[in-house]
Amino acid sequence: MITKEDIGRFEVCPTPFYFYDLALLDRTVRRAKQAAEKHGYILHFAMKANAIDPVLNVMKRNGLGVDCVSGAEVSKALDIGFAAESVAFAGVGKSDEEIVQAIASDIFTINAESLEELEVIEELAAGLGKKTRIAVRLNPDVDANTHKYITTGLEENKFGISGWQIDDVIAFIRKSSHLQLTGLHFHIGSQIRDLEPFKNLCGRINLALQRFADAGLPIEHVNAGGGLGIDYDHPDDEKDPDFEKFFDVFNELLDLKPSQTLHFELGRSLVAHCADLIARTLYIKKGLKTNFMILDAGMTELIRPALYQAIHSIENLSKRGEEEVERYDVVGPVCESSDCFGKAMQLPLSERGDLIAIRSAGAYGESMASHYNLRSLRPSVYRD
Ligand code: LLP
């Protein structure tokens, strides 16, 4: 909830900027952790969702591990002080340099996404004279029913090793001398609010576990990925998302041995609601069919609407409680027609200089910001 005091602080800040409520983040992370710990599950934070220091520090303080998808993310996690054994490293295109760095840092697992990558890891580990812990990321061919750009677990997606290749993977790992298989990794997509796809995922995980057990390859841990979605229409609902319901699905449906641990790597569900993008109205431009509310924030600060047709809730902070409303296409200043936060949005009658909040922007907001048009973000504002 953005308070009157917050708005008072914003008045003197150059826009656009991100406003972070770190106390809310802490409460959300605790809620998730408590729900996970009820079943003995281990949480990692998918730092691609947000990699700023204050956010990572909250995760570290609450004892989460991290999920990284680049060598730079691995370095950042280690620099911030996450224990190497809590760092997982996934990604379909790891460079040799990134793999060497991960092997040398002795992280929790390198999650291999193809047979070809396994061959390279084996060769590089041999060069370093090391045996390295790996997990294999399997593509479970489960439809996540989400936007096509954030679906990752279908056979046609580039991620993970497909079912038809598992026998070759098992044969390769068996004869390798530098790979120590410890886990299986899955991730079916993002912004998944209906739990059905996760139920289907559990069925696929059980089959995969059986297959590796039959092959005599013991699995110590399963990483079920992230993907739990949030309610963008209700940015102030502190009960969103329902972590308990999410973890209950896995508790009910997964056949794990008592010695096997279950890991998750949540991104959006932990950080989305803890930040808002704060902008100012530059112009209210009259049109014949619609009025444009032109903001000083655009797709360079929050690309989700342009890329995934995402709709974030928008609030005019300067006109709170005012009754007269108008319809606006809320757009940014960038030279692209896709630079639009929402069409025909019903908002209070607005004017130049109003402070506007684009809500629930903590996940994939600042982390996906760009310098297109040589634009840059102003310093963030934090509430502890
Ligand atoms: N694990 C892996 C391997 C992933 O690729 C991702 C996200 C996650 C975990 C975390 O997923 P989450 O819990 O955040 O759904 N930029 C897009 C989302 C891209 C997700 C990429 N992978 C968006 O703004 O909607």
Structure notes:
It is a single chain. This protein is an alpha/beta fold. It folds into two domains: 4-16 and 273-383, Lyase, Ornithine Decarboxylase, Chain A, domain 1; 23-272, Alpha-Beta Barrel (TIM Barrel), CATH 3.20.20.10. It is built from eleven helices and 16 strands. It has helices spanning 4-10, 22-37, 53-61, 71-80, 96-105, 115-128, 166-175, 196-214, 243-253, 268-271, 304-308; strands at 17-21, 42-46, 65-68, 87-89, 109-112, 132-137, 179-185, 221-223, 261-266, 275-285, 291-295, 314-316, 325-331, 340-348, 355-358, 381-383. The strands form two sheets. Strands 1, 10, 11, 12, 13, 14, 15 and 16 form an eight-stranded mixed β-sheet that branches. An eight-stranded parallel barrel has the order 2-3-4-5-6-7-8-9, surrounded by six helices. Residues 46, 48-49, 67, 90, 150, 152, 187, 190-191, 225-228, 265-269, 304, 308, 363-364 line the site of ligand LLP.
CATH topology description of the largest domain? TIM Barrel
Number of strand segments: 16
How many domains is the backbone divided into? 2
SSE string: HEHEHEHEHEHEHEHEHEHEEHEEEEE
The averaged pLDDT comes out at 96
Associated small molecules: ligand LLP
Highest CATH level, the class of the largest domain: Alpha Beta
What amount of the residues lies in strands? 15-25%
Helix residue percentage = 25-40%
- Supply Rg: 22 Å
Main beta-sheet annotation: 8 strands, mixed
**Named CATH architecture of the largest domain:** Alpha-Beta Barrel
| Coarse shape | elongated
CATH superfamily of the largest domain, by name, is Alanine racemase
Low-confidence stretches: none
SS summary, helix count: 11
Sheet/helix structural class: alpha/beta
Distance between the termini: 13 Å
